[in-house]
Write a structure and sequence with these properties.
824 residues, alpha/beta, Rossmann fold, 5 domains, 7-stranded parallel sheet, 39% helix
Amino acid sequence: MRFGEQAPVIKGLNQRYTRVSVDTLPIPSAKIIMSMWRDDGPVRKLARRLPPWAKRLARRLLGIADQVARGYATPKATGILFPTSRIVAGRETVLLIIHEATRTGAPILGWNLTVELLADYNVVVLLRRGGPLREAFEATASAVIFLPDGFPMQPREIEPLARKLYDAYAPKYAIANSVESRFIVAELEALSIPVVALVHEFSSGYRPVGLLHGLFKTASAIVFPARIVADDAAADYKILQARDFSILPQGPSKLPSLSESRRGEPASATSDSGPNPDPEHQFCVIGIGTITMRKGVDLFIEAAAAVTQMLPDRKLRFVWAGSHYSFDQPYFDALQQQLLESGLNDSVELLGELDDLDPVYRRADVFFLSSRLDPLPNVAIDSALRGLPVVCFDQTSGIAELLMKHEDTRDLVVPHLDARAAAAAICRLASDPARLHRVSTAIAGIAQAHFNMKGYVRQIDSLGTRARRSLEGLGPAQKIILQHGAFNRDLHFGHQADSWSAETGVWKYLADSRLAAPWNKPLAGTFMRRPLEGFNPLIYACENPNFDPRQLEDPLAHFVRNGRPAGPWTHRVLTPDANDARPLTLKIAVHGHFHYPELLPDFIRRLNRNGNSFDLFLSTTTRAKADDIAGIVTGFALKNVDIEVGGNRGRDLAPFLKGLRDGRYSGYDVVGHFHGKRSVHVDSTTGERWRNFLWEHLLGGQFAMGDVILRAIANDPALGLVFAEDPNLNGWDENLEIAEALAARMKFRRPLPTHFDFPIGTMFWARPRALAPLLRLDLRDGDFPPEPLPIDGTLLHALERIIPFAAAEAGISYATTYVRDSKR
């Protein structure tokens, strides 16, 4: 795809069908009708209760209703101006999304990005809300698009806005300059406009957890200003463990002049005249920022009181530059009371908002960053570059993280929110001029080495350019995959397959896959599903020495282009086409664990779909359930059935491994392991679908898959493990540490890889000797965790994943089964 060409519009699998703001419908009766089709309306509530077989038809009907609604509604984006008079023809364009034009950190940085990028690009600014910097943006940027007050943040409104931005400017890439600019990221990415997301905020400030998931899932590149900010986000969003992100400290920001009214901005605290004259040049400690609880102005005042106590004979001044919002008036009033009760009115000065901070910096000896949380504030960068020692709290900011790395500045970082410790650090600097000079020199050198605005913008531009190159490479990749028929739409999309054409389906896969690049992260499968049966693109990307992820080519496209080379990334796939009704001479055991006996009849019917005979070993958790199972077995007139009762510990694996350990299956050629899967941690339809999927692939239903599998094993002495071809590319998740301990106990000769295939759901057929390495663990019931189990990170989850490695240790290969019409 050449730059500027229109790429397919990609919508997520969890596509929302409600695109309508009912208030925009012109006909009253139409508004009433369409209100019934909203997400909270009766029609959609009813649709959610439909059985799985009916949901596909309901989904299509909802899509039709959505199209009808679009015909009635007029997007508000149609009334927005998209100026082009200052766009330089023949020059590439960068779109900069700014959430507001206030004189605060992110908007100021956004204005500096605009200034720097203009050297090479047209810079178009999309401004969500106004403020004093709006005039600066309008004077600087190539174009400013201003969203009107009350612009609805709904897909139905944002999609046409994104389309108009594409049509008017065809941006090379976009920059979302804070998580508050996330409202349009998914829609831009759907139009193949890659987005570089600058995440200046701590995730812990955005609740409930999940608000930022869409941003982290869809943005082409993610940039944090400091490791502490990235770690905070990764703790809340597991998806960040699946992809690369950058940690780039911004450079010093210039402050545009304040040239318009402060209407709607923070209220002035005292004055705008700057610090009071100080003929004696008292030792001066400054703080800068909007007066909010997060900025810790109360801690600033508390530290001032402590310094006064520690140095009673020394005259010091504490000056705060910044004002407060009207909604923070109670906090500001509390600070005034704190000053009064501490007797600090003569030594602490609240200046209000200043147009020019230079006089404050010139007057200062120390900058005290009293913030409770502040990722990497511009004022801390400016102070450090000026050689002002920055006293700050540990685990609250990126500047603290940086200062802790250097011996000469480590003492500036004091324990978390300990105002008295901060006071002691300030006193040490105020009492020792030589120390103050040494620290000043050190912090200036550190700042000069780390903070460079031009370098920062170059790196952002490099990320945007790389993302653009990656998107442009999807066209050729799509072409070669389609030419070779190397994409299985039914497998990849499952029940959503009918929603995608062959072309858009491949594009969707490629667009998702590129976000996982370079595909070496343990959770890279979060972004993509299996594109082709018998092939794992993650294993290919990590283990094929001829694949270079730096070339930005998708693993599947590279695999096809190079003739589908064999390797650990491919495996044998058994399909119903290979079915043969002739009985085998194999001696076959089947173990089934049923904590829910009501699922057993379906299991037996599927088992009887096959022509081969089985000895059946059933286990359950109580005597009453065993009696129920005995009655069900009698009803089916089954022979050679053994029923065992155990405790409800270790679920299906504990009784199976016990039977393996006791030699119950030693006289058999093949043993199948199954259970009545319910997955109560998800909705009932998901659990039912997963169980049916596994039983359809491994037992029987439309096809006698048990016979297919057993014949393959009988004909191939090297084949000894068969499980279902799952479309999900799950990995170790939270189980690697446990699995590595198990591998060490089993004395595996090879380390565990990052990506692999395994029997998701712990159902499989195997030769008993393929499982023999598991016996080295000598697991007993007490080794398994008690119920209720977490959904991940237990011995059971690790054992599920380690089964193929046990088989490989025994010299046994594996295959998977694929039944096209059975999906999940």
